[in-house]
Amino acid sequence: KYIKDHDKDKDQYSWDHNHSSLSNTNPTLVVQALPAEHREETTLLSITSRVNRAYAKRWGFDYLSFIGDDHGNDLGNDAFLLNRLLQQKHAKQIAHTDADAGAYAVVDAHSNVDTSTNPVYDTVLFLQPDALMKDLDYNIVNLIQDEDLIASGISFPQDGDASGAWTTYSNVMLWNLNHPLIYNATQTWIKSNSNGPNDSAVADVLKRMATDEDGNQERVLKAIHEIPKHMVDGWSGSLVQQANLVGKPAIPRTDLVKLQSISDMVCYSYYPQCELV
Fold first, then answer.
1. Most exposed among 86, 187, 212, 217, judged by the fewest C-beta atoms under 10 Å?
2. 3-class DSSP state for residue 186?
């Protein structure tokens, strides 16, 4: 566990790494962050992280949780975290030109965390703090293939016209860090400077990539995989259940109680996996 105190006018980061010793041919990181507007609601993250850490260990994934802050260009922002993980993955593989170095320089210049010994990942799963895995026996990485940039609850126009309306039915998202478009996606996401919920920001990023002047529409649309809605459909999701509290000013007590009940049920059903993390 890593805790870093920032200057008095900044917030505190709390990191919880659960590096599993189980070998994995597809290194995966599960990320769960408590956004700045709910930073005092640490109970929420403690309820869901119990199950999600057990799930991560079950499949040999690493798990990272942290409390976000109001500083958009720091690691409290999913876009910058994803970019940092990508940079870390390619640090020893790419001979940077001056232009490349300039592009990668955007990666977390504010944190003093030493990542030199951290593992690299092929896949990153982002879960909101009110989301928890219900089915510990299903490997969620099966939802994203080599040709997919992202698997998510984002739906694009089925008529092939990317300029139409995009909808989001879940903010669960898996990113493929080996995809040729991943660098373009992270840079577009960072440049968007969106302060809205992460799911809306990602939908905007994917739409922007598909409608740019470079004619990437077909390529981008083919790289987006829609997670079957029944698997991630709010309280009734068969794989991931979620209260959909992102963007709300306050977390209802009734939702916390319901999440605790689901967490307890999952841990009971899969005993003793929650006790082994």
1. 212
2. helix
